[in-house]
Amino acid sequence: MLARVGNRTITAGEFLDYARTAGGRYPWLPDSAKRMLLQDIIRRDLMLEEAEQRGLMKPAAVQALRSGAEDELLVGAMSDALAPRDIPVSAAEIDSSYRWRKTEYKLQVIYAPEPRTADAARSRLLAGEPFDQLALRFNVTGMVPANGELGWVPGGAMPEPLDTRMRESRIGEIIGPLRVGSDSWFIARVQERRPAAQPPPLPAIREQLIEQIRDRKRRAIIQRAIESLTSEYGLKLEPGGAQALFMRANRAAGDSSGIETPADAQTVLARYEAVNRPATYTLADALADLQGPAERPNFSSVPALERWIESRVVRRLLLIEAKRRHLHEDPAVARGIEDRVEGAVLQSLYDTEIASQIQVTEADMRAEYQRRVGGMNPRPFEAMPPELREQLRSLTLETKRDERLKQFTSALRSKYPVAVNEALLRRLEWPAAQLAPGAPQG
After folding, report:
1. In whole angstroms, what is the distance from residue 270 CA to residue 268 CA?
2. What's the pLDDT at 258?
3. CA distances from 400 to 36, 77, 197, 360, 364 (A)
4. Is the model's pLDDT at 423 over the cut of 90?
5. Which CATH number do you get for residue 103?
6. 191 vs 68, 128, 138, 243, 268, CA distance in Å?
7. CA distance 256 to 48
8. Which of 269, 361, 370, 401 has a beta carbon 3.0–4.6 Å from 241's, enabling a disulfide?
9. What are the residues whose beta carbons fall under 8 Å from the beta carbon of 75, sequence distance 6 or more?
10. Which structural domain, as residue segments, surrounds residue 296?
11. Per-residue pLDDT at 18 exceeds 70
């Protein structure tokens, strides 16, 4: 135990975990950095003690936060399990990607949200309808420009398999339909090809190319894994399900947030197998998802609704698979869940005691101005242009909130005893120097 704050304890392991990810925020000598970080953790725990005593968040709200955080973290953990972020990239892949950049392609595309529409567009192209006219007819979702003109695109810049086909096709050849990602289909043609401007030297953009290649490979792996999951769990969209959601949205005048009815729970949008038992995704489930942070679908398109329903069920399958693999028992996931919940509780208390209590006056701004320019010969306060005054107002607000936070947590120290194991703090080694360049800063 490194410290005790009221009924809470701060362990040496917890402290070092924070230090490893927050080293960049404490750019001082190790002894000073350790004490500053520990004081911040103590202030956090003081506020958590106060929030708990006040009962700021009801158990139902905390449980909803915890459930949402668990789902989000498990989906991320599952994605990492399917496709690790450190996928190897070979020298040959880097050289090829660099070489592709030396050619540009004038690309025109037709976008479709589902394969039937893409097939229909291709059939009409083969029947002789001009590409330009069909692009204007089909590109109505805003996903691509209405005329389909993407301009000059360097090799390697488009998602696969569109990029490879773009580089390998003949001028004017109809490409596709090609499935890109989970819910997009493209028909394309290369109108012209030309040498690109000389790219920077390979050593200067090598790391950038590695990340692009790695990201492309990771996306492909995840997409194949999702296709395998949907097959393994027998995901099937219910005929008429998307139309039911479409009609439900129309009944609410384009807004699906209307009051749920008993019939919503009986209206099946998709079916799948969950742990050896049949399961369904209903209209009620969809309405609940729409009330959360889920991206809203395009209600004007039935194919887009089908893809959205499929994406929500795929998320459920990822969660089922994550728990089957016991990823929810990972200590990092458990810690992440608690961090999310504690963050929401802290924000609630901060808004109540700090943010809502601070007002910035002209006198405050003058004092902040003098504090920041002391010893210089600045222009008069009254001569500041409006944009600088707004910046100064923001800085003044930040300063006053920091002062109020320190006052508030100092007062809490008399309410919740704080004890620090000074001998242990001195022995702990500050790990910031061990961070590699570019390591995440929490």
Report:
1. 6
2. 53
3. 19, 39, 51, 8, 9
4. yes
5. 3.10.50.40
6. 47, 17, 19, 38, 45
7. 37
8. 269
9. 315, 318, 319, 322
10. 234-255+263-325
11. yes
